Amino acid sequence: MNRKTLVLAAAIGLLAPVLAGCGDTEGGSGDGDAIVVGTTDRFTLSKDDPAPVDPAYAYDVGTWNILRQTVQTLLTQPRGDGAPVPEAAESCGFTDSGNERYSCTLREGLKFSSGDPITAADVKYSIDRALAIEADSGVFALLSTIDTVETQGDREVIFHLKSADATFPYKLSTPVAGIVPEGSYDKDKLREGFDIDGSGPYTFEPEVKDGELVRATYVKNPSYKGSLKVGHGKIEMLSYESAEAMGEALESNEIDIMTRGMSPEQITKLANDSDDTVDLVESPGLEIRYLAFNTDAPSVENKAVRQAMARVINRGELVAKVYGSQAEPLYSLVPATVTGHSNAFFNLYGDPDVSKARELLGKAGITTPVKMTLHYTTDHYGPATKAEFEQLSKQLNDSGLFDTDIEGTGWNTFKTAGQKGKFDVYGMGWFPDYPDADNFLAPFLDEDNFLNSPYANTEIRKKLIPETRRQADRLAAVNSMNQIQDIVAEEVPVLPLWQGKQYVAANDNVTGTAYLLNSSSTLQLWELGRGVSG
């Protein structure tokens, strides 16, 4: 086993300029066999989720990983980290001192994969469409600071913002800002099914069985013109029901790469295996896990109950027993290594303390044990999720203050049930849309938040979030960010648990795996190639 540990943050300064300077490329092997990638992400059509890959609706890491290969955005996030760089645009920037007017000039000769030209009007149409539809997923909220979109000629797009937003370039690099053709996407209706029309580095050919995407084929887009260099002309992605099945597929050479959904046991085995035909690449990640609360639900509407849970749960023990060295305890929504991180929950609650939790509940007049169900998804965050919730339930029950059980639900049903308030307490993960503290705070706490949470704090929404967005220098926004985290620790609308690393396992004749995932867990399939790895 050749175990590779990659610390992307140390290389940011070197990588970003290289990517920005790529320009138009004709790379890619084109010939030869496909590189086959395995995942445990499941993609299923349903009544509640009929349009999973429409950019105006998609809002989870799996569907975004499909869109990032196929639908072009004005800007893109670089290999490691750092500020977004031009992609469909040749240049972008604020044109005022208040960060309220943002202008982009498109590259010349942009085309959709159909061969039709892309103009500034297509960009305006795509953004206006996402805002007008206001999909239940809440993804449109990423564009909520936009007031109007203006075009000047065929190549210039000007965004007039409602208020200062220094994070706006990051938001234009996300799939909700993807450019789509008007003829394929209705203005006021989502596009159902798995078909995608875009201008990204790859075209997309879905293979669907009984409403479920079982295989996706990515073929180099001959019309693509952007900043990304395509390393291989054909990539296939297969979806597996379990980490075990995906692992067996790697062993039998059915796939070349394992990505999302590996089990802790698989990672440990691969790290210690003497087989030198498979590489395990470990890199820092910004994935977080947390408990979300329906703060209107009778079992948890009193914040003393949520505070008592924060007092009782032992993150260190949870991580050690379930994930080992593959995760770290997290004491805020903002993970370590992101500017603005603080240990707000540890600062307020300290080490687990059952007696203080009992005192909290007693002062609030809460009868114990407090009975509740902890809900988790069975098929989205990896096979260890059930074990994680078994440990959480045990910790709470062993305190004598809670009487909990657990219940698992498939992701397709789970995410909708959470947004509709059907769960009092449920476990969620977050893969950032972009690596800035704003994206670990606003999506949970602002208006139109993706959880559809009933929790609302006026100081956070009206004062602190706007303050953080006015600061182009993110260090200058830290004080407001810390105030938000302190309020969250006090009121506990969500309870952060841990922050994870990310892993890729690949046959050693595949190159580019070190950059297959960026810090936001975004798949960058264009990085892959065939050859001899180092």
TrEMBL record:
Source species, domain of life: Bacteria
Residues annotated as domain Solute-binding protein family: 84-449
Record-annotated membrane-spanning stretches: none
InterPro entries: Peptide/Ni-bd (IPR030678), SBP_5 (IPR039424), SBP_5_dom (IPR000914)
Signal peptide positions (record): 1-20
Keywords: Signal, Transport
Keyword Disulfide bond annotated: no
The protein's name in its UniProt record: ABC transporter substrate-binding protein
Species of the source: Streptomyces hirsutus
